[in-house]
Amino acid sequence: MTKTHMFQNAQGFVLNQPHISQTQVSQAEKQGLKILLEASLPAIAYDSSEHPHNCHPGTRMQYIDQIVNWGLEGSDPGHCIFWLKGPMGVGKSAISQSCAEMFTTQKRLIATFFFSRPNQRDNPQCLFTSITYQWASKCKSYAKILKSTIHNDPTIVDKELHHQFHHLFISPLQELADRGEDIPKCVVIIDGLDECAGMAAQQTIVQIITESIQNNTTLFIWLICSCLEPHLIMTFKSPQISVMTHQEELMVSQAIDNEITKYLTDELAKIGMEHDIPVP
């Protein structure tokens, strides 16, 4: 292949104190980001077109305020995990979505992941890669380290979860700390953990998170929402995990009848306005 040089065959001009610059994104960085994107699920981000509905205005405020206050306070080391539990359909995902939006306005949200079997978002291998991709889009210094790391070893995205977590989070964070960069404590939201494929994978995810908190290798605080599956109850009850977890249970109760009434009233009024029907 013949190389073409700048100003080849040029004649009859003078360069007076020339300054030539070339801006180019590293090919390694581009390739690393592409590999990470292909191994993640963009649809699990809270602002995706497939995100769940948030809570109806004025409802579930007791839980939303409690979680947001927990997240904004940074949480003490003993409560770096908030486990929101309850039966299916009680509103955990809507609360997660509402909290994600509020944390975003406060610039305290790193990422979200909404597991969903019906929507084929249940692969545990995509959890940490997806969280990583979302955070990399917000933190340039972290993204630069990450892109280079993945370019040097593209198999990271296919590794066992413990190894993924180490290469995608622990090592880059240590490098940022060595540079003296201050990374504030921010929130990661994992919704529908019980819909992740495989009970063992669900338990492993919780164990990896708690180990990182114990060893102080990451600076995240975690909101985890799930149904009351026996294996998850057992996991969160273990002495090692329970001491660093705040637990709150959403229950089906007549106590929320007024919130149901508010929702129905507001929605019926909206329908009435759209169709010019008087609603008492």
TrEMBL record:
Report the source organism: Macrolepiota fuliginosa MF-IS2
Please give the name of this protein. Nephrocystin 3-like N-terminal domain-containing protein
Q: Give the PANTHER family listed for this entry.
A: AMELOGENIN (PTHR10039), NACHT DOMAIN-CONTAINING PROTEIN (PTHR10039:SF14)
List the keywords (alphabetical). Answer: Repeat
The family database entries (InterPro entries) matched by this protein are listed as: NPHP3-like_N, P-loop_NTPase
Checking Pfam families in the record gives: NPHP3_N
| Phylogenetic lineage | Eukaryota, Fungi, Dikarya, Basidiomycota, Agaricomycotina
Where's the Nephrocystin 3-like N-terminal domain? 78-226
